[in-house]
Amino acid sequence: MIAWFSLLSSIARIAIAVTLTWLCAQALPIWDAWQAFDALPDYDYALQADSLRSQQRYSEALLVAEAGLSESSDSFRHEQLGELRQRIVDERDDWRRRLADAGQGALTGTGNTPEALAGAVVADLFVFGDIRDLVVQGGKGLQGQEVDEVIVGLSAVGIALTAAPAFDLGTALLKFARRVGAMTDAFAHQVASLARQAMGSRSVLPLAEVAEDAARLGKRAEPAATIAILKNVDDAAALKSAARVSEQQGGAFALWVGERPAIELAQAGADGEAWLLRSARKGKAGIEYAARELPVLARTHPLLGLAKGIYKGNVPRLLDEALKRHTPQLLGFLFGWVVFEGLLLMWRINRFDDPAPASKSSSDDEAAPRTRAEPSMRAESNAPPTRPSRKEPSL
Description:
By secondary structure, the protein is mainly alpha-helical. Among the domains are: 1-27 and 311-352; 94-247, no CATH class. 79% of the residues lie in helices and 0% in strands. Helix 9 (149-160) runs antiparallel to helix 10 (165-179) and helix 16 packs antiparallel against helix 17 (283-297). The chain is elongated and about 105 Å long. The two termini are 81 Å apart. Residues 356-395 are annotated as: Disordered.
């Protein structure tokens, strides 16, 4: 009975070992994807920020420098980025240049600097910008030129809602993006449709949500970065996802550097957002790779998925990452376990199949004393009977 139990337990253990080994082998593609991601070079924040500074793109240079400061753990690199950030701020804050750019933005509603955008926004907040845009578009219509329905619709609604600062900021950003060619045709068509709906039915809620999302994005990202991000937004849902991600640490930088793949990740749920923020330290190449390989990168390790299915609990992300990174080592351990259990099972089977010799030898051992005892008994039986000795009489 004990032998049978040992044999069955060995079979059960080797079945478990083989199953776990097979499950772990399914994670090799995940391990390959993680290895390829880790092999990508890290984004050089200092180099890129200094390059943007030399191009006088101070808004984007500041965004990159601040993202590098939050990401860097090296003291030397942190000090270098801190000095570069201060240099960017000093150059940006030249009052004469800022005043000229702000005036240009207020008068024309165009420009490529934060000050120009600020001037355009201030003009819209005081209704002047909305009236200016309606006059400009009306003049184009009189001359037979194409009228921009997006700017006309946003300006008209903006005049009607002058008491809503968040709406004004959002519409100003959207109009600025439209004027500088940073709004996709698909998104422009949707915004124009929402503006017509707002003016026709007096229901401005859908358009107000779009404007508020644009304002949220503009508050978290630098103005020029906001315009760059809007270039990759195709609809209101994408804008809402971008605004949500921008409110996380490093989110605005990730959206800016990743361009369209970043928007795709932002719309891919919790896993997409997590990998967008994670891959931003690899720059655009890292975000593109994450967007392409997200189904593999975000897949739960099979062993962890099995445990979660059994216990129905929340498994820590750290354990999942550790299993993915050490899949080859774990696979080697499990393979060794399979070999060990296989050898043990073979030994038990051989021992279980050969019980007769052991019983025969034991019976022989028991018979041996009886065999040795028989001659002595026969000798005693064949011996002549002993006669009692006579005692001689004494004289």
